[in-house]
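Posting for a labmate who doesn't have an account.
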Amino acid sequence: MFAALSARARARQNDDANPAGQSKAKSRKRARDDGDKSANDDDSRASETGTIYLTVEWLSRTRGRSNELFAETPQCADVAIEVSESVTGRALVEACVQLPPGATDAMSLLQWGNLLLDDGVLHGQEDGGWSLDVRATPPVRLKLTVPNGTLLKHPALVKETRGKQSVPKQLLSDANALKEDLNDPSSVSKETDKAEVVERSRRALHPGRTDDHGIAALLNDHKVFYGKKANMGSFVDVGSGCGSLAAGLARAFPGINVCGIECQDELINQSRLRFRDVDFIHDQAENVLHTCRSAKVVLATTQNFDYETTNYILRVAAELPLLTHLIINEPYLCRPSCRTNLKLCCCFEPLETREIKTHWGNSTLSFTIYKRHVRWPYGANALPRGADTAVALMEGNVNEMFLKKTDNSQENSVD
């Protein structure tokens, strides 16, 4: 024992005599202090994360009949979601749901009891002397009321509803995003100004209004809104005009969210005054159609559009994640070149061309309904038909084929 004590004393003397030894001892002590400090920081960050219970309710504008399958909505009550103290109301809504086309942030209501929560930081908002605490035990219960046609995005909500009324897997939000301290309250704008429409598409307008009963019959005959997933997605009317067609389809399918896109000032104002059960967007299709991520059916009176607008609608319809059907005035999409090349038009199969009455004398318009078999998120790129292309589409290696095709074209140009 005395030998061990004497050895420790000699080592301490050597450290005192050797400045390098002193620096090493101080470095070890500093490292221990830094480790304790980082551990405390981790504990403090962990303590800033809490859990809330969220209930999502769909507010249907029209009361569906009892025998309509699409009138059913999934049960989504008291789902546990982890959030940080700095999470804002807007960030929570955007991470949990995908609003239908044409819906604004004002159409979603986030409540804590009778208190309507704003877009700011949730933690600390007060109601009659009570303060919302995201770290409370038991967790606080919030209710999110959303318009009909809204889809779920948060993985916890999708799991609770078993995938009903939810976006595709590739569009799910990150469950850990709400737990990170990345939300700056100053970046939350109270209200965004609507972009003014400056340019207009070149149009040769048909003067009539399309009969909504004819379009509804076309949709019913092909069972577009049918079955257990009938209420998933939205209907988008591109070039909605005075809004009568969109309003008629909203009455025919009360469980479906219907949205109209129109760029003319007089028509959009008239639509909003007459039909309050439909969401109308005042803009050109080229600016907003790609944002309608929950669209299941897109209808466009392409006879009223120029060539560039029609091609844009076709490209967007081929890429939208939930789209199943496209209704336009074009009876044929594929061209002779499609015999050797696979393009975005090839993913649409024409089902029927039908004459639909218009409210203009005894005139009619020819509408063709197409069914989309596969999503084409590759723009205007084309691929050669064949077994290799089919395998690449199934395995998701199409981008490699595009690169190979580019390399081959460059080699040919060099030769």
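Reply:
Got it, the structure tokens are right above this. The domain at 212-383 is CATH 3.40.50.150 (Rossmann fold).
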